[in-house]
Amino acid sequence: MNYIYCDIKRFLRGACLGLVILIGAAPLLAQEDLYTVRDINVDVTAGSAVTAQEHAMTQAREQAFRVLLSRILSPEDLARVGEVADEKIESFVIDYEVLRQKNSSVRYMANLTYRFNGGAVKRFLKNRTVSVDESPKSPIVVIPIFKQGDSAQLWGDDNAWLGVWANRQNFSSRTPIVVPMGDLRDINDLSVEQVLAGDVEGLKKIARRYGAGAALVAVAQPTVLEDENVLELNLTKVTLDDQTDQLNVDSVPMKNRELGEVLGQGVARVLASVNGAKIKREHEAVAVSGPQKLHVSLPLSNLGDWLKLKQTLSEINTIRELKLISISNNAAEVTLTHSGSEHTLASALGARGLALTKTGDSSWSISHRMRTQF
Description:
- By secondary structure, the chain is of the alpha+beta class.
- The protein folds into three domains: 3-127, no CATH class; 140-284, Rossmann fold, CATH 3.40.50; 292-368, Alpha-Beta Plaits.
- It contains 14 helices and 16 strands.
- It has helices at residues 8-15, 18-23, 26-34, 49-72, 75-81, 86-92, 118-127, 160-166, 184-189, 192-196, 200-209, 259-275, 303-314, 342-350; strands at residues 3-6, 36-45, 93-103, 107-116, 140-148, 151-153, 177-178, 214-225, 228-239, 244-247, 252-253, 292-299, 319-327, 331-338, 354-358, 363-368.
- α8 (160-166) packs across α12 (259-275), α8 packs across α14 (342-350) and α12 (259-275) packs across α14 (342-350).
- The radius of gyration is 21 Å and the shape is globular.
């Protein structure tokens, strides 16, 4: 069952205009769709089901709003907007729809659609002196292939490149980006061998199923170029009308860094290429001063989960310390000290099949990345 939630006062004010809007010109409907953000997935674990749902809804609003802003703002303007308070974001929401949901005593999972008030959002952005671009952009489904030596991976948790793309809420793009779930339909429709052989029809098929206008094959491969270890990136875009283009993108220097961090920069470079934007090179990146501390909840099924997660986290170079605060049958609470930004940490975790999720103003959750199926 789907649930739609809306502000009743706004609904009553708009009821008399409903017929006019439905009968009105197509551009109005197109603009309304631009301010509708679909396919927001949340998976939050907390001390209780109620707390988990509250944190999930806050996270979903913030995620949906960032997706909206990335549609209508350039990367430079998006950075200028900065953080927006949840109360302000909530004031922009006309209604939201819970398409699918599951919950337990400590966990809440859902897929949601949000509808934002375009006028209110534009007035807010005007006060931030940024330019809004409402021109329509067709979604692109990304097909991330990771090559190492003679092997190539597409579907499955062993594909670290896919794992970083799956944490796409940590990135922004003016062009809507769709990351396949990697479920049985994806596996049956398209194999890594088909992609590397240039199966245009297979790529078009998966693009249509995800409602995209094109498929972007993004191949990442660690290699050596001019005596330097780099992540080489090759991009091929295939549209539904049979146009095939090679996109220019720079390789990412590896410099003995965490693979997840390098892959995260690779995603940023791919998105910059897709959006035609300039990106900052490593030496221009804004430095994060000193180690950062996060309060993190780790969902558990048993003690073995804790031992496995602890071992995995200890292998990430940017994590300096993991201090256990408390542990129960359902979760471990820890203080995690890391160097770099949350973006860097999320990329390192994504490469290991883990997801970093913000559950509150100063609280986070790290859990196994799931291709949620309801």
